[in-house]
Structures are given as structure tokens and as C-alpha cells.
């Protein structure tokens, strides 16, 4: 493992392969802000790349060996394999290489109060909500979030304090390369089964993760999740729990929802009222995300009154129950949900939202996840009035013919009347002709399913 100190500048030129990714671009921004010469490549231009170029990065479109112009270090994203021509060239020139997670971990070491938010679901929402509570609480954190957060103008904010916050993804155990002072574990579920053998393998990775927190640090853990309860005893640090159903240090009580599905609740901390909280985002699952954020914020020194005053200012993040617009009196909402648990939570939130009929359009994400969780997916859409499943978004995988969206539809209860449609254009035309005022269209998936919502809005 290479040792990199952000402040030493023994390394001058850093090249990032896959620099347009949400996390890689954030790393590039941090390096630029500290005076490094940053270059990088990606397969196509984007808003993130144009922003990096404006800030001084040297950007190459396409992966070519000539893009390697004698950097001191090469950083590559998880999607970049060893046969990539730039990685091949770097190896020929004996240029050191590290992956994205290792680089992020090395940057985290600069900060005394680094917060890493982990879990199978809710990482981006919790990270962005906690980030804004820290920002509005005058902690001036450096923020890396896996989405477009309007309040900070994107996915990255460079702070001047010792506070740092980022998501900690468990895929390929990348979060084991981090150095958190506070670790947050929201939940543990079966996912990324193209890497993990089973839930026990996943829990073992989380057990290792909690041991990374130093003795003087904190683990914030959801006590309602039985898998989380199983693993947090491995931590050497202080454990602070939160929950709704199971006894915990921070508990949400008297939960209610307004007409838009936004929750209000009282937080009880060790038997005493900590504060009254009102969210501007819908769903019970966001009460859990908020509880994690409230707990961590308090550990960072924020009082209940400050947190309560600022928490309604969080309006959500791009692709998390994101209202895209309205057409024919119908609201079009997009959500990143791509796991059965997330789909159920998103549909429950939609049920609380004013609607006549819920249209659920789902694009499965990766063949391995669809195959491993096929039965769970088939039972995830009961709340929807009409479900349409489109083709699987392959992402990093190839189709081996073992699973497809038709099989998912065939497995679903016939009473649901679920339909399979391959073409986005076909889906747009089918829905548009049948929409009535008051309907709610909800697109879900981690791929490009949001284009269906955009297509409906463009039919105005």
C-alpha cells in the first residue's frame, strides 16, 4: 500500500483513470485545491469533466496509452481493469498505481474527524443530510457525496476544518481502506453478490470495517437491524445506537406524516427528549436516515436545537425521490432504488404522497443482482397500481443469458398485471396515453431509467 500525504507534495502529478466518476471527480477536486497537477481520462465528456477542466485539470476523452504523460502516481476507479491501455502503459513505465478507495483512504488520514457512512441502503441520503447539518452547524466540513447535492453545488465541497465526510461503499470491501473517526452503519443486506458469497461474507466485511475506528472514536449503529446488531460488538470504540422499534440510545417516537408524506417525530435520548424534528423528504426509511444523521451530528458537538432548526432545510438529492416535473397533471418522480428493500421503501413513501394511481417503472441493475434476488424483486411491487419492467442495465457486467426482465415479470403475482417493455419509447407512449390527472409516475433504478421521466415531460 502506498503512503500518500496530501500536505507533503512529494508527489506532484497525479493521473486519474475514470476521472469523470462521481467519487473520482471529487478526489480530483480535492487534489486540485491542494495544488497538485491533475490529469485524467474518461470515455465521454460530462458536466463533471467540464467543471474539473475549469478548475485546472488536464482532461483526455477516451483511454489511450499516450494519456500517460509521466505522472508520479496513477489512480484508477473500480471499473478500470488491468488491461486498460493507460494502466498497461503505467506498468511499463513503473509508475505506482492505487485504486480509488485506497486514494480516498489516504486523503481521509489528513482529517482528525473523518466520518464514513456505510450500509446497504441509504448511504447517499444520510451522507448528504449529515453533511448539511455539519455545514449549517458551522463545522465547515469537506464533503464527498455520491450524488448531486444542490446545497453545495455538486458532489464535493472543500472545507477548511478537520471534519471530513464520505460514503463508505462495501463493494469489493473497498471501505476497508478508509480511516474513519466516526463510522455509521445504517443496515446490512444481501447485495453485490457478484463479489460476496452470501450474507455471512458481507457481515464479515462489516466486522472488519468497525475495527478500523480507533478506540477514542465512535460507531453509530442502527439497533433495529439484526445484522448490524450481530457485528458491532467487534468494535473497540464507543458504540452509539439509534432505532425506532428496538431500545437504543437515540429513538424516534410519535412519528407522523403530513399530506406530502414528510415525517415529523420526537427523538428520545436515554429517556429524555432530545428534540422535535420535521423532515422535508418523504418516507419512514428517511426517519432512519435522519436518526443516523442526528446521532452523528450530536457526537460532533451539535445540540438538539441546532439540528432541529436545520434539518428541514435538507430537500433531498438528485435521483432520490426526485420530482422531475409535471405533465398532464401527473407528477414524475425518479429514484435510485435498485434493491428490493429500496424499492419497497420508495413505494411506501410514494403511497404517503398524494396520488390517484402509482405507476412504477423499474430498470433492474446488473445481471448478478437480478439473478441473486429475483424472488425478492418479484415481491417488491405490491404497493404499485401498475408496474412496468424494462431491460436489465448491465453496468459492469455481460449478459450470459441466465436471467432477464421477462423472467422477473413471469415470477410476479399475475394479479399485479405487471408488464415487460424493452423500449423506453414504447413505455413513454404506453404510459402517456393512459395517464390521468393525479397519477404518480415513479421511475426506479441505478441505470438510465430516468430518461423515461424526461421523455414524458418532453411530450408537453
Automatic annotation (TrEMBL):
Gene3D superfamilies per the UniProt record, alphabetical: Mur ligase, C-terminal domain (3.90.190.20), Mur-like, catalytic domain (3.40.1190.10), NAD(P)-binding Rossmann-like Domain (3.40.50.720)
Residues making up the signal peptide according to the UniProt record: none
EC number: 6.3.2.8
Pathway where it operates: Cell wall biogenesis; peptidoglycan biosynthesis
Lineage top rank: taxon: Bacteria
Alphabetized UniProt keyword annotations: ATP-binding, Cell cycle, Cell division, Cell shape, Cell wall biogenesis/degradation, Cytoplasm, Ligase, Nucleotide-binding, Peptidoglycan synthesis
Catalytic activity: UDP-N-acetyl-alpha-D-muramate + L-alanine + ATP = UDP-N-acetyl-alpha-D-muramoyl-L-alanine + ADP + phosphate + H(+)
Domain spans labelled Mur ligase N-terminal catalytic: 13-111
Mur ligase central domain mapped to chain residues: 117-296
Predominant subcellular localization, coarse grouping: cytoplasm
Residues involved in ATP binding: 119-125
Residue ranges of every copy of the Mur ligase C-terminal domain listed in the record: 319-447
UniProt-listed Pfam families: Mur_ligase (PF01225), Mur_ligase_C (PF02875), Mur_ligase_M (PF08245)
InterPro entries, alphabetized: Mur-like_cat_sf, Mur_ligase_C, Mur_ligase_C_dom_sf, Mur_ligase_cen, Mur_ligase_N, MurCDEF_pg_biosynth, UDP-N-AcMur_Ala_ligase_MurC
Enzymatic class: ligase
GO BP: cell division; cell wall organization; peptidoglycan biosynthetic process; regulation of cell shape
UniProt keyword Transport, yes or no: no
Presence of keyword Cell division: yes
Cited function: Cell wall formation.
Protein name (record): UDP-N-acetylmuramate--L-alanine ligase
Source organism: Clostridium aceticum
